[in-house]
């Protein structure tokens, strides 16, 4: 069952968004005319060629990147700085964990200064349980595999009880088995918590498998080239979902939008 609420104010919204970045060649429009609305509880993936502006778009939504035109709103309010309840998970988990802190204390990092000790403890334990990390709570992150380190970063985000989770290729550096397992954990947690998720990936199968909607950035400067509803029901399964004709059809459409030649 999906938890998407289709009426009311969008959790995140861009209207005619324009973003300009200054590089060696001067100021360049990276995004122009981006229109996007993400509903509360929706899981939206963002795909696009490398360098198309996926990370830039996520940074705008997270209040980390200023805009040159148009609008970016979170729960109806213009974004100016990181909005309350919006948490970003980066691909590079190794640099976001503190090596001198145990897993448990890394997970507490985002809440320890604004929660009571008791509440902090409860939230940390609940977040560790959501990603099956209780047994490693006293370990140090550098002693863990890449997949476990990424689970620590996700647990830290979950402990903050975000209403919106922004994820930038969070499983990009992991092997296929670990990736599939984390996809399923994320799926379970998202269904249980109703968190809105914007998930940047370059993996077409991952995007279709996880999402309520797949958005493909296209063009230079980029805008939304395709927005595709994924009506595959939930829960999903790595084997049976990926065998469904409608899954294969969606996958085909996304590859085509990314400019892959599809043989007849
Ligand atoms: N700080 C920056 N200054 C100038 N150009 C940048 C900066 N960061 C990224 N870019 C350029 O903006 C474009 C989009 O980058 P990015 O959002 O990281 O793309 P993606 O995440 O889709 O790979 C790229 O062409 C990149 O070279
Ligand atoms: Mg990127």
Automatic annotation (TrEMBL):
GO MF terms held by the record: ATP binding; ATP hydrolysis activity
Keywords: ATP-binding, Nucleotide-binding, Transport
PROSITE patterns: ABC_TRANSPORTER_1 (PS00211), ABC_TRANSPORTER_2 (PS50893)
The UniProt record lists the keyword Zinc-finger: no
Domain of life: Bacteria
UniProt cross-references to Gene3D superfamilies, sorted A to Z: P-loop containing nucleotide triphosphate hydrolases
Domain ABC transporter: from-to ranges: 12-244
Protein name, per record: ABC transporter
Organism: Micromonospora sicca
Taxonomic classification: Bacteria, Bacillati, Actinomycetota, Actinomycetes, Micromonosporales
């Amino acid at each position: 069952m999906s938890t998407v609420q289709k009426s009311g104010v969008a959790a995140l919204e861009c209207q005619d968004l324009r973003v300009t970045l200054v590089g060696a060649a001067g100021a360049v429009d990276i995004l122009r005319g981006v229109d996007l609305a993400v509903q509360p509880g929706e899981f939206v993936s963002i795909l696009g060629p490398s360098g198309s502006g996926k990370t830039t778009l996520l940074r705008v939504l997270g209040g980390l990147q200023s805009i040159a035109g148009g609008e970016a709103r979170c729960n109806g309010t213009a974004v100016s700085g990181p909005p309350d309840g919006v948490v970003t998970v980066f691909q590079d988990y190794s640099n976001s964990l503190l090596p001198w802190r145990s897993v448990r204390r890394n997970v507490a990092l985002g809440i320890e200064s604004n929660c009571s000790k008791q509440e902090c403890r409860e939230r940390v334990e609940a977040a560790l349980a959501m990603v099956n990390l209780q047994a490693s709570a006293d370990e140090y992150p550098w002693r863990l595999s890449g997949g476990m380190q990424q689970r620590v970063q996700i647990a830290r985000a979950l402990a903050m009880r975000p209403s919106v989770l922004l994820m930038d290729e969070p499983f990009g550096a992991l092997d296929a088995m670990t990736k599939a397992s984390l996809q399923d954990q994320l799926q379970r947690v998202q269904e249980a918590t109703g968190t809105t998720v914007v998930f940047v990936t370059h993996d077409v199968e991952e995007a279709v498998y996880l999402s309520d909607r797949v958005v493909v950035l296209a063009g230079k400067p980029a805008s939304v080239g395709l927005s595709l509803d994924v009506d595959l029901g939930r829960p999903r399964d790595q084997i049976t979902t990926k065998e469904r004709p409608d899954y294969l059809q969606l996958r085909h459409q996304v590859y085509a939008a990314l400019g892959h030649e599809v043989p007849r």
